[in-house]
Amino acid sequence: MNMASSLKIEKADRLKELPPYLFVEIDRAKRQAREAGRNIIDLGIGDPDTPTLPHIIEAMKKAIADPANHRYAFDAGLPAFRNAVSEWFKRRFSVELDPKTEIYPLIGSKEGLAHLPLGIINPKDKVALTDPAYPAYQASIIFAGGRIIHIPLKESQDFLPDLKKIEELKDIKAMYVNYPNNPTAATATKEFYVELVRLAKEKGIILISDMAYSEIYFDGQKPISILEIEGAKDVAIEFHSLSKTYNMTGWRIGWACGNPDLIAILSTVKTNFDSGVFQAIQVAGIAALNTPDEEINDLRLMYEERRDCLINGLRSIGWKIPAPKAAFYIWGRIPKGFSDSIQTSKIFLEKADIVATPGVGFGKSGEGYIRMSITVSKDRLTEAVSRLSKIL
Ligand SMILES: *Cc1c(COP(=O)(O)O)cnc(C)c1O
To answer: Range with the lowest mean pLDDT among 63-67, 112-116, 163-167, 378-382?
Structure first.
């Protein structure tokens, strides 16, 4: 054998530390079902199915033709984008943010969430992570060498972490909160945030709030930002996204805001990885942030109708799931007679051609639950209920 050509490519230890990808089998089964031409109803992905609003596309068309937007963007983004965020934030949450030091544009909020730990976590630092959680947090803590302390989210506590437990923990460097929550669709109360901020200040914990679903809420109950809490800016950074609110998941734009030191740290990490958000997308982002609220309301009503359609439909066939107040997920206990979340997903796919996400894929405490996304039409949701009625 020629030794020179037999280099064995081995991945780095940090990649080996990633937890096993639990959706492998489901993904494979889904692909096979599609290839076999089966009529799959995909409730697996949280990605809006309706197009980006037309005025945003128009703004993009103009911006893309302007050569001024073709060059490297400033890392900190267009002042006009940061100003638009600042104004939006004030309108929405009555919170003042300094566009120069307290707002930073991101290539989608996932990008910022994933880069922040590299700037604040040293090897072996402890990071509190709610379980279940959006999987990107976990990977980025592992890449930074941090140790994850799992904090279970329980239905009996409205999927809010037990702050007494956190009070007992020592040397927690940072903690993640995500409300409205993916996957549980839970929302946070003001009292919870007040207590959390108090605790974080007392114990010196950095709070990382992910508010990707801030505008997807129902029954007129607006979710609050952690930055509304007095003193939160001393300890918290919050991540926002244009993806879910304006049907812009593919465009890649969001922002971080809050504590100026954390923003400066994040900007240092980012300048070494990327060169900012394509300026034309920032211009389109400004148009998005200035969307009249009635248009977003129409979107909310569409999701609310779908939520009611699915929840009521499932109730009528004996599967009772509480109606979520926000986000576009239904997080239900697996139906009677099913043994675990992976088995439930497999049976849904095999017997009903429905893709739903097993709860355990979001963390151990997600076991026993299944997540269904309402990013498909009401007709398809009605069809899904009818198919499920045959197997439940
Ligand atoms: C969709 C999602 C994001 C990522 O949004 P982008 O801005 O598109 O990167 C972040 N957090 C949660 C919880 C999400 O569900």
So the answer is: 163-167
